Amino acid sequence: MTEEPLIQHILRHIPLDEAEKALVLSLFSEKQLPKKAYLLRQGEVCKTENFIAAGCMRMYSTDANGQEHILTFGVEGWWISDLYSFFTGAPSAYSIDALEDTRLLQITRPALERLYEKVPRLERFFRILLQNAFVAHQHRIHQNLSFTAEQRYLEFRARYPLLEQRVSQKHLAAYLGITPEFLSTLRRKLARR
């Protein structure tokens, strides 16, 4: 029998015995989101940490002109949440929606605290996740400040080779901070090389 993707994910970082696996699964709840459905809307409080078991999502903000700015995408085996809102209870500056039909495993803050108490090793697991997320966001900020649009696009393709086929050109352009038209021009230029 294949283990739940969440358990497989955790086991890559820390060991769990059968009772601990059962506890983890008992404290997470499953949520199915159809394509285009919202997990979180800008201004709401993020009440869950979300593990993506299947599907593709995006986290973004919308500015005063209605322009979307995608902070991150998320696919199978990734986590997606507004951690600032989740930990502080402040309204979120972001929206999170499904780009494909998506299956999530969610945990609330009280359930997460219970998990830390019952399985202290999981604090290490979540620390590793937060460290990795911090490093990735720091790298993304550096790219946005220092790289040309072409360099950002090539880096995206190198880091996430399968993701480009799963997101629309409009969404990829919003992630890269360019227009869809400029992305088309950039792709044509690179194809000619």
Question: Describe it for me?
Answer:
It is a single chain. It contains eight helices and seven strands, in the order ααβββββαββααααα. The chain is an alpha+beta fold and 193 residues long. The strands form two sheets. Strands 2-6-4-5 form a four-stranded antiparallel β-sheet. A three-stranded antiparallel β-sheet has the order 1-7-3. β4 and β5 (68-75) form a beta hairpin. The protein is globular. The mean pLDDT is 94.
User: Span from first to last CA?
Assistant: 47 Å
Indicate the radius of gyration in whole angstroms.
18 Å
CATH topology of the domain at 5-121: Jelly Rolls
The CATH level-2 architecture of the domain at 5-121 is identified as: Sandwich
> Considering the protein shown, what is the CATH homologous superfamily of the domain at 5-121?
Jelly Rolls
Tell me the helix content: 40-55%
For the record, the CATH class of the domain at 5-121 is Mainly Beta
Largest sheet: 4 strands, antiparallel
Mean pLDDT: 94
Order of helices and strands: HHEEEEEHEEHHHHH
Shape: globular
**Order of neighbouring strands in the sheet with most strands:** 2-6-4-5
User: Structural class of the helix and strand makeup?
Assistant: alpha+beta
**What is the count of DSSP helices, taking H or I runs of 4+ residues?**
8
| Low-confidence spans | none
Q: How much of the sequence is in beta strands? A: 15-25%
Number-wise, the strands total 7
